[in-house]
Amino acid sequence: xxxxxxxxxxxxxxxxxxxxxxxxxxxxxxxxxxxxxxxxxxxxxxxxxxxxxxxxxxxxxxxxxxxxxxxxxxxxxxxxxxxxxxxxxxxxxxxxxxxxxxxxxxxxxxxxxxxxxxxxxxxxxxxxxxxxxxxxxxxxxxxxxxxxxxxxxxxxxxxxxxxxxxxxxxxxxxxxxxxxxxxxxxxxxxxxxxxxxxxxxxxxxxxxxxxxxxxxxxxxxxxxxxxxxxxxxxxxxxxxxxxxxxxxxxxxxxxxxxxxxxxxxxxxxxxxxxxxxxxxxxxxxxxxxxxxxxxxxxxxxxxxxxxxxxxxxxxxxxxxxxxxxxxxxx
Length: 330
Known about the structure:
about 325 residues, mainly alpha, 3-stranded mixed sheet, 12 helices, about 5% strand, globular
């Protein structure tokens, strides 16, 4: 009984031939108490901004009937994905900044990896679907409502989710099929695949190839869809006679292309490379950027460069102002 109790008293699992870890330690960012408090406040502000921005965007589109078209339905899904994506990682990281106990249970680590890989991969496929949607809208705007009907955009959203869940299932099962008997200290702020592979006492060669080829294939397919779509969009824009039409098309597509470039760029740097080039401290900063910072930036990217969204914000805030005046006078 005492041996069973001691396994939970110590967070660092001792090295034994048959001992398997029952929990992991998320080492995260190092530094003194002042640094940890500063990081806590910084990431808390980012997280709150992410939730308010993304859920606010989804609510805005839902409330404004003029934004009820496939482009903005995709944007609702993207906003919810970003809010969930950040929520899979940030709350535990915030707790660890202020706590000496940085442990996460084995099942908690499994769940965290599965969720963030699901949301991240789904976003890759969704951004590709959004690029195709922009091509359909600009290439033949008169037939847009027919070409991008619910029979088209709903399956695209569902397929994106299935792709995300499939990749997450494969990566999670493959990673946690390994043995972790030497160390349980993860040099990261959350349970990601590369840092877990580095602490495994099993042969991880197959896992590294799986990560490289699977993520690489997803990136190649989705980036090709984006590049082909925007190549055709550029040709369609150059054929437009109206300068106003060209300006509106560039404004609408520019925001999406900015979001796609930043997101895919960080993922390519993080995962599609040989395992020998992994530098965990540097990778931790990069992965923090695409899981926490990018979800915060997306509402800014898609609102500040989009006239329709800015006009919808004015209408909604105008209504709120009128309601406040009415309730005040009453």
